[in-house]
Write a structure and sequence with these properties.
Elements (H helix, E strand, L loop, with lengths): L2 H19 L15 E12 L19 H18 L3 E7 L2 H12 L4 H4 L2 E4 L10 E6 L14 E3 L13 E3 L4 E8 L2 E9 L7 H23 L3 E7 L19 H5 L13 E2 L12 E2 L13 E2 L2 E5 L1 H5 L1 E6 L17 E6 L1
Parallel strand pairs: 1-2, 8-9
Antiparallel strand pairs: 1-15, 2-4, 3-4, 5-6, 7-8, 9-13, 10-13, 11-12, 14-15
Helix pairs in contact: 2-3
Length: 347
């Protein structure tokens, strides 16, 4: 065979791999969407990986799913949960790429009514090269713009930080996030999906997370300045000191205050509200950490680190909000170690 054939084959393979990894582009917008009942869901789906990722060794010893069989069972289980929730829009954290999203959608299409099978996958690849995790979107409403990112960074420790960070000053960006816009029922909504760095009270991670929040705060302010409503959702890996979770966890950071417009460069210039205000405190928990490694969940091992923050107008549209606690957390199950946050809006 000729050299040209091998060159063609090489670049075709590279192109297909890239396509499998990233699917951020909106092919055709639906500017006439009149959907007025929105079910928006935030869900950390815990290592939704199907293709092997060498940097994280997943599926494998580096993550929850030790082989492809368990990884595929996890994807199938996650598909069933999403099918039952029947979202209009769902933000997914810890997704490897578009192969996994396409598999989710394929499974959903075989188990639910056509109204839910219209979910379309989008993913803008992030910068977390260590884990290979990304934030993704499944939606029945076609976004107005292709998913994009901000590559801005912010210096930390930020002014007034109480994280007790002792390291050298440095900067951070938001490695896992996307930004897009949706237009429905004559409302322009900026949708921001994010996954901040883990470990809520670790001093180093606390300080880095504050910098990440400052980056997103600027994005929120810019959209509100343009007259958009805002929905910011994701695994923020931090607590809300104003809206305490079921175990009264207190943040050491200003992260939620920054994002809500109560602290930072744009403090007092906008306000976002935590939808968890609509949920009874005893039900405010979204993530399980097996502190004693006994593989059994107890009430004290849960926290609320998955959040949805919205503008005042969107807050007024909320009909119901809840964390879906539809499975018991323990080892050796195929469900995520997080629970979905479900919010119904009538706009």
């Amino acid at each position: 065979m000729s050299l040209y054939f091998y060159i063609f084959l090489f670049f075709s393979t590279i192109g297909s791999l890239y396509a499998d990894t990233e699917c951020p582009n909106v092919i055709a917008t639906n500017s006439t969407s009149k959907i007025n009942q929105l079910r928006i869901v935030q869900y950390n789906v815990e290592w939704l990986f199907m293709d092997y990722c060498a940097s994280s060794d997943c599926p494998g010893a580096g993550c929850t799913w030790k082989n492809k069989t368990s990884a595929n069972a996890h994807i199938k289980t996650t598909s069933n949960i999403i099918s039952n929730l029947s979202p209009t829009i769902i933000n997914l954290c810890e997704v490897e790429g578009c192969d996994e999203l396409n598999e989710l959608v394929k499974n959903i299409e075989t188990t639910v009514s056509p109204s839910v099978s219209l979910l379309t996958p989008y993913l803008r690849k992030g910068k977390d090269t260590s884990t290979g995790q990304n934030v993704a979107l499944l939606t029945r409403i076609t976004p107005s713009v292709s998913l994009y990112r901000t590559e801005e960074r912010y210096n930390y420790p930020i002014e007034g930080s109480k994280c007790n960070y002792k390291g050298e000053p440095t900067s951070a960006g938001v490695s896992k996030h996307y930004i897009t816009e949706i237009f429905t029922n004559n409302i322009n909504i900026a949708l921001i999906g994010a996954h901040f760095v883990a470990f809520p009270t670790d001093p180093s991670r606390c300080a880095e997370r504050e910098a990440q929040a400052m980056v997103i705060q600027k994005v929120v302010f810019q959209y509100i300045s343009k007259g958009f409503e805002v929905i910011l959702l994701g695994d923020l890996n931090d607590y809300d000191g104003d809206v305490l979770d079921a175990n009264n966890n207190i943040p050491t950071s200003h992260v939620l205050r920054i994002l809500k417009g109560q602290y930072g460069d744009y403090s007092g210039k906008y306000s976002l509200y935590n939808v968890a205000e609509e949920i009874p405190q005893k039900e405010r928990y979204s993530a399980w950490w097996d502190k004693n490694s006994d593989c059994k969940s107890t009430p004290t091992e849960f926290s609320m680190i998955d959040h949805m923050l919205v503008t005042s107008k969107m807050r007024g549209y909320i009909k119901t909000a809840y964390y879906f606690h539809g499975y018991v957390e323990k080892c050796d199950i195929y469900e995520s170690d997080h629970y979905p946050l479900v919010v119904d809006f009538i706009v």
